[in-house]
Design a protein that fits this description.
The chain is mainly alpha-helical. Helix content is 63%, strand content 5%. It has a two-stranded antiparallel ribbon with strand order 1-2. A hairpin with a 4-residue loop joins strand 1 and strand 2.
């Protein structure tokens, strides 16, 4: 960017279109010694990476809040997490390679996504979920990216209202799926879809599985 080329953008203007976390992610995906290409395409990539982190954290909280895992810790999985954590430190020590660091976090998330069941629970012990969550939080927070402030430390009363709405919708939807009347089933499912869309308009994203539903706040 150059003032002479009239292609500069102020921080205030940037924040009208993107969040600080999204722009920080773009910077982290690039080498600090190289020129940073800022455009809609590169920001789409950064937003996609940040959304991947958001979804993973939401899935972790949904699992820990609703699922009592009977799995015992898997030594192989624990070692993989330990290796990734060590590799993160190695890459940060190697000329502050933040791009590789984010790719390692994505590798960690992809490993856990393979363990995610259709009911949004991880097929592993809670210890491993907590450890993975801590690695992601700790690494991102060290870069100034805090994903807990607005998305997961929400007002308790608002959470109760959302929980009640989503739980009611889930029960209504399950009733419709078990109904033998196609007319009633379609009417009820349509109402469920309407509520889902109305919640989405308020940045509350509802995901359905065969047996349950979960929600997350998304900007």
């Amino acid at each position: 960017m150059s003032k002479s080329l009239m292609n500069t953008i102020s921080v205030k203007e940037l924040l009208n279109s993107y969040t600080a976390n999204q722009f920080r992610t773009l910077c982290l995906l690039s080498n600090y010694k190289s020129d940073l290409e800022f455009n809609d395409s590169t920001m789409d990539v950064a937003c996609g990476v940040l959304k991947k982190f958001d979804s993973f954290i939401a899935n972790c909280y949904a699992h820990l809040n609703t699922y009592s895992s009977k799995h015992i810790p898997d030594i192989t999985l624990l070692k993989k997490m330990s290796d990734i954590e060590n590799d993160i430190l190695i890459n940060l020590a190697d000329n502050f390679n933040t791009s590789k660091t984010l790719n390692l976090l994505i590798e960690l998330i992809n490993t856990f996504n393979k363990l995610l069941t259709v009911d949004f629970n991880f097929n592993c012990s809670n210890l491993e979920v907590i450890q993975a969550l801590n690695i992601v939080f700790k690494t991102l927070e060290s870069f100034g990216i805090d994903l807990t402030t607005t998305k997961f430390k929400s007002d308790a009363e608002n959470s109760l209202v959302i929980d009640a709405a989503v739980n009611f919708r889930a029960k209504l939807r399950q009733l419709a799926l078990e109904s033998k009347s196609e007319i009633n089933k379609q009417d009820i499912l349509k109402l469920c879809d309407t509520l889902r869309d109305e919640l989405a308009a308020a940045n509350i994203i509802v995901q359905d599985s065969k047996l349950s539903s979960m929600w997350r706040h998304e900007k």
